[in-house]
Request: fold
Amino acid sequence: MTTKIFLGGIILMIIIAGLIVYNNNQENKLIDKMGEQVSFVCEDKNDFIAEFSPDMSTLNVVVGGEIKYTLSNTGNEVVPHRFGDSEREYTFSGEGAVVTNLDTGGGTVCSQPIDPNNAPYNFGDSLDGEQQEAISLVTDSMRGTWKSLDDEKFSRTFLADGTVTDRYEGGEETSGTWQVFTANSGIATPFTLEQDVMYLRLVMGDETLHFSLSKLTPEELELTYMERGNLLRFSAVK
Reply:
């Protein structure tokens, strides 16, 4: 009797182990069938996994282990990795993504979490040589300190190492990073980028600011704040 119970226990353990292996294999097959999976964390503190079909025609948005949306590719030659329906749109470029609510027009920038063991997935950069040269020229021309023409107490300094510092007389300094880019730079934004326009991104702590360059000369700099539409005017500090 004891021998039968012992053998029965072994058989049960083998069956359970077999089921675990089978389920794991099925999950792996499903992942392989769906294609690439990329994790994102958004500025609004939400997160999701982007699960792409092998031909990039379909996107599953996975939240909390469940598929929340299945979206079709609505991209084009300029923005090939855009997926959406009548209510929402997910646009992937460079190493980031933007989630847009089509009802309100609001967008949220998302990025891939830092993984020291794996490089982030890059969705491509379509810059040509002329655009890269233009970005380099604008970047070089912007380096230095610029004083606001609208508020004489405020100044902004762009450094060659990619850092930017805002100063306000009588207040604290705020530092961050800056980058000049175009619609083809592979940078995700919460608004539609236009061709032949130079943009500036500032990351100041938890806040990301976007501007379009309205004017740039050795003496003057004008930036249009994309999130609000107001114009900021500066003069070069000699």
